[in-house]
Amino acid sequence: MRSRTFLKAKQTALVWDVPGLVAGVDEAGRGPLAGPVVAAAVILDELRPIKGLADSKVLSPARRERLYDEIQDKALCCCVGEASVQEIDQVNILQATMLAMQRAVVGLRLKPVKVLIDGNRLPTLDVLAEAVVGGDARVQAISAASIIAKVHRDRLCLQMHERWPHYGFDTHKGYGTEAHIRALREHGACDAHRRSFAPVSGVLGVQGGIAVGGVAA
Fold first, then answer.
1. Does a structural domain hold residue 17?
2. Residue pLDDT, tens place only, 10-27
3. Residue 166 forms part of a structural domain
4. How far is the C-alpha of 151 from the C-alpha of 61, rounded, in Å?
5. How many domains does the chain have?
């Protein structure tokens, strides 16, 4: 039996907090039908504040790009972790997301004493961690991570569009829009598609896909 890589987290304050560096973690791309799931970990520098940090979903693409550059310049360190389409299909999207988060935290140049993660589940880490529901709008380090992850994944989608232009990855970013489903039906799936997701498996005539919506994240 495959071991699980996440823990269900209670939304309670951790009384054993210790002083030191805190990393924020968030992901982008759990819902799309194609492409990897991406996570970012960011440790901000309190001496170099960044104005305008917010959940990446409420920011315009241009604003996200500007903040992405500022975070890269001012943060103490950032790291992006990915889980591939093959990993998503093998272990499921939730565990693949936890894997991407693990990789992002482990890849940080500086090791935090605590990690704050958006959502209600925690990957297995060797540092103190706390899940924060709605953290991308409440915790600046998580907001920064959401921006890094979103911009990074959007850029991956542009690369996917260059390779497979008939799917429109540059516009829908892999989500299950009507145009994307039409392209799937016309051209079939490419190597970037998640075959374990129901809209893709349905087009391919494969049973057991995961039902997903088309809401961006």
1. yes
2. 433 444 556 799 999 999
3. no
4. 8
5. 1
